[in-house]
From TrEMBL:
<dbReference type="InterPro" id="IPR010982">
    <property type="entry name" value="Lambda_DNA-bd_dom_sf"/>
</dbReference>
<dbReference type="GO" id="GO:0003677">
    <property type="term" value="F:DNA binding"/>
</dbReference>
<dbReference type="InterPro" id="IPR001387">
    <property type="entry name" value="Cro/C1-type_HTH"/>
</dbReference>
<feature type="domain" description="HTH cro/C1-type">
    <location>
        <begin position="2"/>
        <end position="53"/>
    </location>
</feature>
<dbReference type="Pfam" id="PF01381">
    <property type="entry name" value="HTH_3"/>
</dbReference>
<keyword id="KW-0238">DNA-binding</keyword>
<protein>
    <submittedName>
        <fullName>Helix-turn-helix transcriptional regulator</fullName>
    </submittedName>
</protein>
């Protein structure tokens, strides 16, 4: 897999956005808040949209996840795409059955 900007080290990213590695670590772990300018600098340096960085913290992040999945599948061949689709279908079926059972049990 090709190395992307999203894979750069924490130390290098901190240097590029002119903050300390400790501050960046605290941002990543949620131990400190990040200013909007620094947040945008981080997104720009990683060459990702801000929603990509936020989607794990957002409730309504479906579009961000769809985009991430699409990017992951971009270089898949036909066999890989079929394998992923079949497994995703099975996972969704299982998840929905479990959710239905959970709801019925809670009623």
């Amino acid at each position: 897999m090709a190395r992307t900007k999203a894979n750069i080290s924490q130390k290098l990213l901190a240097e590029k956005v002119h903050i300390s590695s400790k501050h960046l670590s605290n941002i990543e772990t949620g131990n400190t808040t990040v200013s909007l300018p620094i947040f945008l600098d981080i997104a720009n340096e990683l060459e990702v949209s801000p929603d990509t960085l936020l989607c794990d913290s957002m409730i309504n992040a479906k579009q961000a996840y769809i985009k991430k999945i699409s990017l992951l599948m971009k270089d898949c061949d036909d066999y890989e795409a079929r394998f992923i689709e079949e497994n995703l279908t099975q996972m969704l079926d299982s998840f929905r059955k479990l959710e239905k059972m959970r709801r019925e049990k809670g009623s």
